[in-house]
Amino acid sequence: MITKNLNLLRFLALYVLAYTFPFPFGAIPWTDSIAEKLDSWIDVVILGIGHNIFGVTEEIHVHYSGSGDTTWHYLLLLSILVFSTVLTYFWNLVRWPRWNAAALNYWLLWYTQLYLAFCMIQYGMVKIMMAQFTELSFQMLIEPYGNSSPMELAWAFFGFSKSYNLIIGLLEVVCAYLLLFRKTRMLGALTGMVIMANVVIVNFVFDIPVKLYAIHILLFLAVVLAPDFKRLLSVILLNKPTDRVEYQEVFTDQKKVRIRRYVLWVFGILVSINAIIGAFNFKSNWGDYAPEPPLYGLYEIQQFVINGNTLEPLLTDTVRWRYMAIDKPSTFEIYRMDKSMQRYSGVVDTRANELYYSSNSLKEERYKLSYHITDSIFHFATVYQNDTIEGKARIWNKKDFPLLNRGFYWRTEYPNKR
User: Fold this and answer.
1) Residue 43 sits in which domain range?
2) 336 near 322, Cβ under 8 Å?
3) Is the dihedral of CA 213, 218, 224, 226 positive or negative?
4) Does 412 fall in a domain?
5) What digits encode the pLDDT tens for the residues 6-28?
6) Burial of 287 (0-12, 13-18, 19+ CB in 10 A)
7) Which of 10, 23, 90, 153 is the most exposed place for a label (fewest CB within 10 A)?
8) Within a domain: 409
9) Is 395 helix (H, G, I), strand (E, B) or coil?
10) Calpha distance 192→172 (Å, rounded)
11) What pTM was computed for the model?
């Protein structure tokens, strides 16, 4: 059992249910719309609690920003703690539903296993398909280490190797399927705790804002491992024999046992399909599967003439361009000598040899850049912010960078570290 303390068991059950809500909606195909509707109701409740009960005066952002450690998430966590504590108290008063500790333990483990399997499949599939740590962008390749955030440095490190992502992703998916079934549950929980301990450490030391979520996955894995903790302690540390586990079976009918096993397999397959579809859609729009845009490449400005004056490449210059980059569909980036960067929406007309680019924030800021290419030199001319600009640029591809063309060697006389 997780614990023989019925009060603690009830609290854990309420907390896990509240934290994972609206799971399983959103985890399996064709349920996203239901999950979005339920999530919108949660947003309204948390906003009301934050402003009216906890007295939060600042704006509480509920839109998805990529961070799981926002004010909204901390309010949600605090609300779940209060909710679970209060309901546990009333559950003890009314003594309904009248589940004994054994039954509650069984269903809590079963539900937590499903949720953890979903989480590990999500973690694994986005790594296998390189949808989490995508290939290094031109911005990452030209940006000095000191200018990147700790999270960006971590993303560059993990995104460098497709093989690393494939291996870690496969381990996480295998862990998920081990968690689904009772006989392999302990191995799955042990494997998952090792994996998630590393994730938690990375999130903390690189300040990646998914700390609350990663900690909860690690704690839920500990809950699943709790029934086997004493046995593991005896075997691993105390060098004592341990008894075999007598699993409590809720279903006495073998047909129902087989149906439960099939349900778990179907659940795992559906969650995997849903994760693959999500990763594929992302990759098709922004990742490796997206069509390579015309003029794809990095353009290092070798000559820059503005209003008839040639500007030398001084690192303190706030006007002269240093690079132009076209990395993703419909994007155009300008990097100045002082390391500032401006991103624009870009559309290339290859017939007219023209690039139309506009500001994402200022709709009236629209420009046209004319170009032609001779002997791998990119010649361009544009009117930018009322200045007439023309210049020449060297064209770079990602394989031109030593980081991406080094390769692998079994024998190395001296470390290739610089």
Assistant:
1) 6-286
2) yes
3) negative
4) no
5) 899 999 999 999 999 999 999 98
6) middle
7) 90
8) no
9) strand
10) 7
11) 0.89
Alpha-carbon distance of 92 to 102, in angstroms, equals 16
Query: Where does a domain end: 266, 286, 306?
Result: 286
Structural domain includes residue 413: no
Give the Cα-Cα-Cα angle 44, 50, 56 (nearest 5 degrees). Answer: 135
Do 189 and 331 lie in one domain? The reply is no
Cβ neighbors of 253 (< 8 A, separation 6 or more) are: none
Domain edge (last residue) among 240, 266, 286: 286
Measured distance CA(230)–CA(236) in Å, rounded: 10
Q: How many domains does the chain have?
A: 2
Residue 10 in domain: yes
pLDDT tens per residue, range 240-289: 888 877 766 677 777 878 888 899 999 999 999 999 998 888 888 777 77
Measured CA to CA, the distance from residue 141 to residue 235 in angstroms comes to 49
* CA–CA separation, 311 and 314 (whole Å): 8
Closest CA to 117 of 272, 279, 276, 281: 272
CATH number for the domain that contains residue 314 = 2.40.128.20
What is the Cα–Cα distance from 154 to 161, expressed in whole angstroms? 12
- Angle among Cα 266, 109, 23 to the nearest 5 degrees reads 55
> Are 252 and 346 found together in one domain?
no
Phi, psi of 265 (to 5 degrees): -65, -45
- 257, 301: one domain: no
Determine the average pLDDT of the residues in 289-314: 92
Hey, is 89 helix, strand or coil? helix
